[in-house]
Write a structure and sequence with these properties.
The complex is a heterodimer. By secondary structure, chain A is mostly beta strands. In chain A, a hairpin with a 3-residue loop joins strand 4 and strand 5. Chain A is globular and about 35 Å long. By secondary structure, chain B is mostly beta strands. In chain B, about 0% of the residues lie in helices and about 55% in strands. Chain B has no helices and eleven strands. In chain B, strands 2, 4, 5, 9, 10 and 11 form a six-stranded mixed beta sheet that branches. A five-stranded antiparallel beta sheet of chain B has the order 1-3-8-7-6, with no helix packed on it. The mean pLDDT of chain B is about 90. The chains are: A mainly beta, B mainly beta. Chains A and B meet through strand 5 and strand 10 of A and strand 5, strand 9 and strand 10 of B.
């Protein structure tokens, strides 16, 4: 089983719908991240969390929200999805600042 | 805006040759540097990290860091077709900042 698990792996949703991407990890790491990847733009940080009481905005947080339900769970929500949020989304974890980041398998999201 | 720059490629290298991948970064105070490999549609996987100036070798891979020139590179010796992938350079800026900033990646093609 993967150490960082994302659900759903693929999702097609309509413009204006609310969508949640979930992430759980068994690595025991405190730090969790959400990135999105777009062709030609690379990986960009959306939000990150140091622990269950700490949430921080990343480079591109507008249009997104997150919830850290437990040390092992970090979810990303699109309150009202729009087509330019079509992307590959990755959850990731790390054991500390400057440490290696480990990625989940990714969630393909298409907004039509 | 702190940036990580990579040539997008594609970089085409004959099988068995040395592939050289380059990355520059904008903040002289950056502390840690990572190379990830990503196959199409898959999650990035860590190849190696480097913190100190000089070379670091791991099997067929060598990372080279020159902080004065703000330059980090990855050499792949005895290139194999299975090395064909996109290689992502990532930087932790330090100073309490978290997460990694990624370059857009270099697409490497190993020609049999």
């Amino acid at each position: 089983d993967a150490d960082v698990t994302q659900t759903p792996r693929n999702r097609i949703t309509k413009t204006g719908k609310r969508i949640m991407l979930e992430c759980s990890q068994t690595k025991g790491h405190d730090r969790m991240y959400w990135y999105r990847q777009d062709p030609g733009l690379g990986l960009r940080l959306i939000y990150y969390s140091f622990d269950v009481k700490d949430i921080n905005k990343g480079e591109i947080s507008d249009g997104y929200s997150v919830s850290r339900q437990a040390q092992a769970k970090f979810s990303l929500s699109l309150e009202s999805a729009i087509p330019n949020q079509t992307a590959l989304y990755f959850c990731a974890t790390s054991g500390g600042s400057g440490n290696t980041i480990y990625f989940g398998e990714g969630s393909w999201l298409t907004v039509v | 805006q702190k940036e990580v720059e990579q040539n997008s490629g594609p970089l085409s290298v004959p099988e068995g040759a040395i592939a050289s991948l380059n990355c520059t970064y904008s903040d002289r105070g950056s502390q840690s540097f990572f190379w990830y490999r990503q196959y199409s549609g898959k999650s990035p996987e860590l190849i190696m990290f480097i913190y100190s100036n000089g070379d670091k070798e791991d099997g067929r891979f060598t990372a080279q860091l020159n902080k004065a020139s703000q330059y980090v590179s990855l050499l792949i010796r005895d290139s194999q077709p299975s090395d064909s992938a996109t290689y992502l350079c990532a930087v932790n800026w330090g100073g309490g900042a978290d997460g990694l900033t990624f370059g857009k990646g270099t697409h490497l093609i190993i020609q049999p």
